[in-house]
C-alpha cells in the first residue's frame, strides 16, 4: 500500500483540497473583527435552509445544546417522559435528564440500527410527551410510522440528525424530504467528523413553524427578543462566525462529500459481500444513505478479535456503541425501562465501524478489505 496511513477520518487532506476557499473565508472574518454573530452566521443559516428546503435554521453551539433547547421549547414538565432510541449516543437521554424529564429507551431495528416504531409503541405511557429519533450512521429512520404514532398520541417529534445530513426520506407516494425536516424540530451537529464538519463544535435547530423558530432563536440567546430584553429562560449557545464562514464553504461541496462516501461504501459492499461472517449495512428502501459511518455486524462473537487484527495491520476501527443507553451507569436511576431491549444489547456486542471519509484512496480500501478477508480465511 506504499506506506499510506489509514485514518478513520482524514480532515487534513480535505482541508488541503479546499484550502484556498477556506483560508479566504477565515481571513475575511479575522479582518472584520465580527467574531460573534457576524454576517456569515445568518448567511450560513439561509444557505442551509435552502439546501434542506426548510423555513428556518437556527445555528447554535453544538447538537447536544440543540437537543436540550428543542426539549425546552416543547412545554414539557418535570417527570414527563421522552422516548429515545436505546442504541445511540447518550446526548438525547442526557438532555432529557438535565431538564428533569424521564427518558424511556426503545429498541431499534436490527438491520438499520434506527429506532423501531413497534418499540416506540411499547414504550408509550400516559406520561409520554415526546419522541426523539436519531437518524443513525447516515440514513433516516422510518419516519412515516413515527409521525403517525405521534399524531395519534399527540406527541412532539424531535429529529437528531447529527449523523445523516443530506439523507432523504422517501414517502410511499414518492415525495422526498431531507432527514431532520419531517418532525416538529430537527437538530444538527457540525462536529469536525460529521458530513458537514466545522473546525470545532457547532450545531443547529430546524423547524418550519414560525412561532417555534422565534422561541428557539431567543432561547439560544439567553431568551432575548433583543439585547437586554429577556422573554424566555434561555441559554448561551451560539455558532461562532469563523465556524459559520467555514461551513458556508463546505456546504457548497456537500454533495461531492456525500458522493465520495457512497463510493467508499460501494467498494466495501462489493469487496466484503461474500464474507459470511459479516452483515453489511442495510439500505432501507425508504431512505437514501450518506454513510457517516460504514458499520458492519460481525457474527459469532468475532468482533473484538477482528478489531484487534485490524489494529495490528495499522487499520483503525471503532465500536459505536459499546453500551446501550439503558446500560449507562449514570442514566439507570433516571430512565424508565419498557419492553425488551435485546436488539440494542446484541448490537453493542457485534457492530464495528470501518474507516470512511471523503479522501480515501482505492489502495487504502483494497488493503482494508484484503486484511478483513485474510482474518476470516486464516
How would the blueprint of this fold be written?
Layout: H1 11-32, H2 39-52, E1 56-60, H3 63-72, E2 81-85, H4 91-98, E3 102-106, H5 117-123, E4 128-134, H6 143-153, E5 156-160, E6 168-170, E7 176-178, E8 185-189, E9 203-207, H7 210-220, E10 224-226, E11 229-230, H8 241-252, H9 254-272, E12 278-279, E13 294-298, H10 303-312, H11 342-350, E14 351-354, H12 362-377
Parallel strand pairs: 2-3, 2-4, 4-5, 5-8
Antiparallel strand pairs: 1-9, 6-7, 8-9, 10-11, 12-13, 13-14
Helix pairs in contact: 1-8, 2-8, 3-4, 9-12
In short:
The protein has 378 residues and is an alpha/beta fold. It has helices spanning 11-32, 39-52, 63-72, 91-98, 117-123, 143-153, 210-220, 241-252, 254-272, 303-312, 342-350, 362-377; strands at residues 56-60, 81-85, 102-106, 128-134, 156-160, 168-170, 176-178, 185-189, 203-207, 224-226, 229-230, 278-279, 294-298, 351-354.
Classify the beta-strand content into a percent band.
15-25%
Specify the CATH homologous superfamily of the largest domain. Answer: Type I PLP-dependent aspartate aminotransferase-like (Major domain)
Strand order of the biggest β-sheet: 1-9-8-5-4-2-3
Radius of gyration computed on alpha carbons? 21 Å
CATH topology of the largest domain: Aspartate Aminotransferase, domain 2
Percent helix: 25-40%
The main sheet comes to:
7 strands, mixed
CATH architecture of the largest domain: 3-Layer(aba) Sandwich
Silhouette = globular
Structural class of the secondary structure composition? alpha/beta
In the CATH scheme, the class of the largest domain would be Alpha Beta
Q: Could you spell the SSE succession in H and E letters?
A: HHEHEHEHEHEEEEEHEEHHEEHHEH
How many H/I helices?
12
Query: What's the number of extended β-strand segments?
Result: 14
| N/C terminus separation | 21 Å
The total tally of domains equals: 2
Mean pLDDT: 97
Low-confidence stretches: none
Amino acid at each position: 500500500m506504499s506506506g499510506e496511513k489509514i485514518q478513520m477520518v482524514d480532515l487534513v487532506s480535505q482541508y488541503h483540497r479546499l484550502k484556498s476557499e477556506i483560508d479566504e473565508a477565515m481571513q475575511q472574518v479575522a479582518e472584520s473583527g465580527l467574531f460573534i454573530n457576524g454576517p456569515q452566521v445568518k448567511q450560513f443559516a439561509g444557505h442551509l435552509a435552502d439546501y434542506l428546503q426548510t423555513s428556518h435554521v437556527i445555528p447554535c453551539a453544538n447538537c447536544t445544546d440543540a437537543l436540550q433547547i428543542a426539549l425546552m421549547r416543547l412545554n414539557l414538565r418535570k417527570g414527563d417522559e421522552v422516548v429515545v432510541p436505546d442504541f445511540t449516543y447518550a446526548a438525547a437521554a442526557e438532555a432529557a435528564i438535565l431538564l428533569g424529564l424521564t427518558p424511556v429507551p426503545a429498541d431499534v431495528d436490527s438491520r438499520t440500527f434506527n429506532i423501531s416504531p413497534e418499540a416506540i409503541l411499547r414504550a408509550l405511557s400516559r406520561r409520554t410527551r415526546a419522541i426523539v429519533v436519531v437518524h443513525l450512521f447516515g440514513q433516516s429512520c422510518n419516519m412515516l410510522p413515527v409521525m403517525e404514532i405521534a399524531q395519534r398520541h399527540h406527541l412532539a417529534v424531535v429529529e437528531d440528525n447529527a449523523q445523516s445530513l443530506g439523507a432523504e426520506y422517501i414517502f410511499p407516494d414518492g415525495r422526498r424530504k431531507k432527514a431532520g425536516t419531517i418532525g416538529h424540530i430537527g437538530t444538527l451537529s457540525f462536529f469536525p467528523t460529521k458530513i458537514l464538519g466545522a473546525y470545532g463544535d457547532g450545531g443547529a435547530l430546524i423547524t418550519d413553524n414560525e412561532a417555534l423558530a422565534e422561541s428557539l432563536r431567543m432561547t439560544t440567546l439567553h431568551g432575548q427578543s433583543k439585547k437586554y430584553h429577556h422573554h424566555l429562560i434561555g441559554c448561551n449557545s451560539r455558532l461562532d462566525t469563523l465556524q459559520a464562514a467555514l461551513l458556508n464553504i463546505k456546504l457548497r461541496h456537500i454533495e461531492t462529500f456525500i458522493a465520495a462516501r457512497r463510493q467508499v461504501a460501494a467498494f466495501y459492499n462489493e469487496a466484503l459481500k461474500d464474507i459470511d461472517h459479516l452483515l453489511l449495512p442495510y439500505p432501507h428502501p425508504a431512505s437514501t444513505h450518506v454513510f457517516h459511518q460504514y458499520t458492519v455486524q460481525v457474527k459469532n462473537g468475532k468482533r473484538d478479535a477482528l478489531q484487534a487484527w485490524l489494529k495490528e495491520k495499522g487499520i483503525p476501527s471503532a465500536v459505536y456503541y459499546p453500551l446501550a443507553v439503558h446500560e449507562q451507569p449514570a442514566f439507570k436511576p433516571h430512565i424508565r425501562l419498557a419492553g425488551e431491549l435485546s436488539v440494542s444489547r446484541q448490537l453493542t456486542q457485534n457492530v464495528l465501524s470501518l474507516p470512511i471519509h471523503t479522501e480515501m484512496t482505492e489502495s487504502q480500501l483494497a488493503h482494508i478489505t484484503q486484511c478483513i478477508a485474510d482474518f476470516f480465511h486464516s
